[in-house]
Design goal:
Largest sheet: 6 strands, antiparallel
Number of helices: 11
Helix content: 10-25%
Number of strands: 23
Number of domains: 2
Amino acid sequence: MKKLIALLLALITVLSFFGCGAKEPAPAIEEKRDYSTWANIVADPKTWYDNLMALPIANENMSEDELRQLCVDAMRANLTFVWTPTLDINYSFTLLERTSDVYLPANKMAYSGLFYCNNNARGNVWKALQYYDIETGVMDIEAMGGQMLGVLSSACARGCEWGWARVANSTGLENMGSYNQHNSNIALVGTYNYGIGKYSFGSGSGTKDIIRDNGEAVILDSYAVMKPADGVYSSSSYHVMMISENPVIVYDADGKIDPKESYVLVLEQDAIGSKTDKQDTLQSNGVTLRGLGGVDNKYTFQDLLDKGYLPFTIKELIGEEPVEAGEAYIGQQNAPLENGADMLLHDVLAKTLFTNYAICTVETQIQNPEGEVLARHRYDHQTTPFTFHASISSDAFEEVAAPYANGKNTVHVYVRLSTGELKEAFTTVLKVS
């Protein structure tokens, strides 16, 4: 099994080899900016849910195009997740040393996507679904018990990563501050040279300096070979986005790429008040929909140059890392506890959960022999957005579940992986204490 990637502070690649795909420009496409489906989702949240659950599980036999489309579809599902809170939401986030206070009212207001919270973003859509009414689209804020930020918040890199993590378990993408370090699990797109160790990112100008030293023509050629599910990163904008469609390439009279006319569409988890403001006026059944992220936002190549964006991709998408089957177990790392042995609940919960893909949700259940759930415990306490191991200890759950330890009832540990799979990591009959 591939070495589990822990919480890395290493993100965008500084590899100096050439990128993925052919050097020929991608075919032009018509721009897709029809947000009407969002209104339909507000009216019928179950449609969105059914579409999410219909996404395939990545496997080694899928083509590159299929894997790329899966990443895009997964991120788009996260950004078009529409919900109405039962309570007003007040929170603050800090970005580039500026603190913003945000107010999301509950009355007649719906939101699409998770909300931006740069300094405490550890939510994901699977966590949110635990508190979501699929029929009505209502999000039960009270039931989160003070864990709202741990359930509903996201950030730019983390938002993209939940898309890539449908396929990849090697990326180690976690936050923007470490995109400027070496990460051997990411590959450059195009022919530009990153220059390992040459550039300083402390001032935020690193990616712009790379563009300057490579020359705009090299960077434009690199933009031209981007594909869906590739990413772009800028240290000066402190932002990362996922490409959602093949770029549209326009040439000038001299046969060179015209950066002002050529463009690409992106998916981005962005802060409220930037490119997403235009989505605030969408209406459905008397409900105002406010977009908390950008869906198929248009950036010209000139925009990308001016803001210092560099293209990269994930190695699983280009066949340089394998797409693995999802795995989950409890025990010690690389030493799973075997199912079936009668155990005390305390001994089960003392173990650690390990996975080979990022953990979305964890739930422990006590079931009777007929499969009826007698007690359950959800774990929304992870302090990091991407982890491959988690504690399942809970004194409170031990106390609640103690009466059910009769030698017949069973304990089950379930984990939702970033691939979308719900795995049973462990099950056994509970011994009488």
